[in-house]
Each structure stands twice: as structure tokens, then as C-alpha cells.
Amino acid sequence: MKRNRKAKILATLGPASASSDVIEQLFIEGADVFRLNFSHGTIEEHRKNSESIRNIEKKYNYANCILADLQGPKLRIGNFKNDKVSLKNGQKFTLDLLNDQGDHSRVNFPHPEIYEVLTPNSIILLNDGRIKMQIIEQHKDRLITEVLSEGIISNNKGVNIPDAILPISSLTSKDKGDLLKALEMGVDWVALSFVQNAKDVEELRKLVGNKASIMAKIEKPSALKNIEEILEVADGIMIARGDLGVELPPEKIPSIQKLIINLCREKGKPVVVATQMLESMINDHSPTRAEASDVANAIYDGADAVMLSAESAIGKYPIATVTMMNRIILSVENDKENYNLSNINIEEKNKKRIGTTDAITSAAYTISKNAEAKAIVTFSVSGGTTLRMSKERAPVQVIGVSPNISTSRKLQIAWGVHSCHAQDANSVTEMVDIACRIIKDQKITKSGESVVITAGVPFGNAGATNLLRIAKIIDDKDLT
């Protein structure tokens, strides 16, 4: 099954999409990556969904990608005597370590590790930013604040602190347990929530090893300050606009989104745009015009993938949301007047002497244009060459071939890559035969059309791309 678009779709699974039949329909309609959200659901539910995904993979002979999204250290307040209270502008309100139920003047905030780093004038946001407080007194066991924006606050609401780098790990004990189960399920990507710096990613890397790729979720201002170092150690980036939009003014999010996408493009790291993309479709048959424009703009910006969250997890129309997102992406990619690949083909800054792999992939891009080739086939054990080719944003289909099924799965998230699992080649002739057979089976080209093929000699070695061939597809043979 070959997609007719370059950008990818992530679909979150949940109660509305937990059956194998619905998951299969999501796949047929265009879901390239399935997200297991460990903030919700049980381990058994996630395991059942992962098994359904792998069964679909076998049925269609199509490598499917699974992303496990860890919950992370979400800060929350305690409970109130009457479940909720109303706060007024200018009043004092205390967050403390007392276990008593809260009232109109105070509530439990059970995170003593962060009290000392919060100073007077620090801003605290509650209930997704609806209530804003400023610290006026800081103590080891309590924080006295002034309410800056009034509203109602209720039990266990989330807390955001945008101005500080908090002394807490991005991995909670729950996350570590969930991670072990996710790796047992054979997930391909692990998304790390509330990343603040590169050390958070490195901590996860020690636990994951080479069992999965790591996606850093950017949802805190501190992550933006450290985005360059985070990009160096993460395999991919998710722009998680939910919490990011709480901790930053909403008018700043569009420019931040473009900045991160461009940085990821420069580094050749897949980037996903997430949160509320087709939010209306949780309850309605169609999105708003603003939501359709939001998805389209992410594609115009050059994102590798766009994500459905609640829309496909708990919404009334999970299949329809994937269908709609697929249509929007195709509409953008068919817009020849405005969607010019050369406009999003980011030049590397301060170019230095490049390695063999970069030279080969750059040459493959140029040759595919000049020779009017219909596809570029990359043989890659680790997937590095295919990701490098994805970075080029070639105008033709990129066929990523790997003898490693885990590599084939993880590459499904990359822009423009049709990922295939196939046997490794032992010679150049066999390599070309495999490439041409895949292209014929997938009906990617017609007889007489050319393809560009890259690989590494000796075969089977990761990071050794040093070979480029041009092959012509003909009816009675594999190549000329």
C-alpha cells in the first residue's frame, strides 16, 4: 500500500479507536504512525492495540510505526472541601504542603522539590492557564501568591510554571514502568514529555538504548531556550502546542512552530506538529476553516508529520478525522502555485566539508531532477541515509529499503519516505534487482522510467553509503 502524499499522519488510539477493525480502517484511510498515549488507558489496552497494529502489518505486508508517548511529570494541586472554589482578582492564595483539603484561601501543592527555585514575582498558571497567580512570598513549605486573573479552580487541576527550569526529572517512576512495558511491546518511537534540556533526553537514552528512537516533546519555554542542544541528542521533535500554548502567549506559537520546523529540517530530524489540529471533529463531522488552515500551514511550513490526539482517541468520528487530514495534506501538496518544494529545501548553514553519505544523497537529489527519475531508492541498515534523503525534500518518491524491520517501521514517520522491509543485497546486481522488484510491486513507476538507487558497499554495514546507480524499469527484465 503506497501513500500518494509526502507528509505523514499520526493517529492517537483510545476508547474510540481501540478495536482492531477501527485501527485497520485508520490505516487504510492514511494513518502512518499510531500513538499509544500512556497518560491514559491501561497497559493491557496498549498491548492489545500494539498487537492489532502488528497484525495489520502482516496482513498488508506494510511496516507500521508505533509511538509510545510517556506521561511525564505533570504538576497538580490537591482537592478542595467542596470540590472547587472561586478566586477573585487581587486576593491572596496559598499553595502549601499541608494534606488538609483546600478552601478559598489555600490548597495542597505536593511538590516540595520545586518550592526553593520559585522566587517572588514568579508566575504560576492553573487549569490550563485560565487562572494566573504571581508569587509574593516564598517559603520552604508554602508559596503565597496574588491572583492576577480570577476564575474557578477545582480538584487536581494541572499547574504550569513557565518562568523556571524545575529541578525534576522528565521521567517519573510511572514513566519508567510504562517504558519497560512499551519496549516489551516493540514500539518504534518513545516520546518524552516536558523536556527541559538535553540531559532529560540523555537520561531516557540510557534506558532505551537502541531499542527505539526518541522524540523530545517541546512544551516548555525552557526547552525552547535549549532547543539546539536538545536537537543534537534527540532523534525527532514533537511541537506539543497544548502545554506550550499555556506557558507562552498564544500569538507566539505560530512563529515558534516555524522556527522549530526549520531547525529540525537543518538537522535532518523528523518534526511532528501536534495538538488541537482538527479539534472540532471530536464532536462534529467536519473541521472549522481555521483548523483546516492550521493543518495546511504545518504542511506548507515543511513539517514531517501532523498528529491527531483526542480527535482519533475519544472523538465521535476517528476514521473521518484521518480521512480529512489526508485530504488537507493532499490539497496542499497538489498546490503547485504555493507549495514549492524548493522554498522549503533548507540550505545547511555554514556548510563545511561534507561526508560521503551527504555527497551521495545530494547527488541523488540532483540526478533525480536532471534525469527526470521517478523515484529514489535508499538501501539503509540504520535508516540514516533515508532520513538524510528525506531532508533533501526530493520532488520524487523516496523508497527506503532496509533489511532491519525496526528501521523500516521507524522511517514511516519521515517526510516523503515509503518504507519497505526487504532482504539485504549481497551484490550491486542483487541490490538493483531488489529495488526494481519493489518498485514494480508497488506500481511506483512505469516501464521505461528511471530510478536512482543509493546503497553502501560492503553491503549490510550501517553508515557506509557510498554507491549510486541509475536503473531503467522495463517489462521483461529488472534493469538495463
Q: What's the CATH C level of the largest domain?
A: Alpha Beta
CATH superfamily of the largest domain: Phosphoenolpyruvate-binding domains
Helix content: 25-40%
**Based on the structure given, which CATH architecture of the largest domain is correct?**
Alpha-Beta Barrel
Give the end-to-end Cα distance, rounded to a whole number of Å: 26 Å
Q: What's the overall average pLDDT, rounded?
A: 90
Number of domains: 3
Q: Which regions have little confidence, pLDDT < 50, spanning 5+ residues?
A: none
Strand order of the largest sheet: 1-2-3-13-14-15-16-17
CATH topology of the largest domain: TIM Barrel
The largest sheet, given as strand count, sense and whether it forms a barrel, is: 8 strands, parallel, barrel
